[in-house]
Specification:
This protein has 209 residues and is mainly alpha-helical. It contains 7 helices and no strands.
Length: 209
């Protein structure tokens, strides 16, 4: 019994990873909906906040479990970094949506919808990639997914630059410019965090030969 308490089932960590990536995808889907149809009501923002809150609870549970655990399925530092970086994706996604609801910009920008779509695609790739850590025999698929995430992040960076350039050309109201630039920056930061997760996962795969 004592041995079981200090050597936990690996499944517990992977289950929490999956719960966290599920919340990330849920949040990215809500954000994309806000960008697509202007559904930036308080109720929609509250749904996104619930995703972020759920993610925080999973992070606290995972880190508490890590502190109680003597033997872990992958390196302890990697688990800590992975959990916190996944949390950052959700935090930036939530921040973008909450700013949209708070600032109530005059019109929706198609560039913002494009960027939110890229973020959602990256989030779904992260979800699959992290789920495959259960079975490191699928290394080729995991590594291919890390490349896909990097491609999405590069695309998001280009989308943000082009969106800001278009804002400068088309938006005469400085307050509207500031609103949208902040929202765009937050979404791009979320995709940056997806790339950071991919880097952590790549390191885990390489460490396991």
């Amino acid at each position: 019994m004592m041995l079981r308490s200090i050597i936990p089932r690996a499944e517990e960590f992977f289950t929490m990873f999956d719960e966290l990536t599920g919340s990330i995808v849920d949040g990215a889907e809500i954000l994309q909906g806000m960008m697509a149809d202007g559904e930036n009501s308080t109720a929609t923002a509250d749904r996104l906040h619930e995703c972020e809150h759920r993610g925080d609870e999973i992070v606290h549970r995972a880190l508490a479990h890590l502190h109680r655990t003597f033997v872990t399925p992958i390196d302890r530092l990697d688990i800590h970094r992975l959990v916190n970086q996944l949390d950052d994706i959700l935090d930036f996604t939530h921040a973008a949506g909450s700013r949209l609801a708070l600032y109530q910009p005059r019109t929706l920008r198609p560039e913002a919808l494009d960027l939110s779509t890229t973020l959602l695609a990256a989030a779904r790739i992260v979800q699959e990639m992290v789920s495959l850590l259960r079975n490191l025999k699928k290394k080729d698929r995991i590594m291919a997914l890390t490349v896909e995430v990097n491609t999405r992040e590069n695309h998001a960076d280009r989308q943000r630059r082009e969106a800001v350039a278009r804002l400068l050309q088309e938006e005469s109201d400085p307050f509207e410019f500031i609103k949208w630039k902040e929202i765009l920056d937050l979404m791009e930061q979320a995709t940056d965090c997806c790339e950071d997760v991919a880097d952590i996962v790549e390191g885990i795969v390489l460490a396991h030969g």
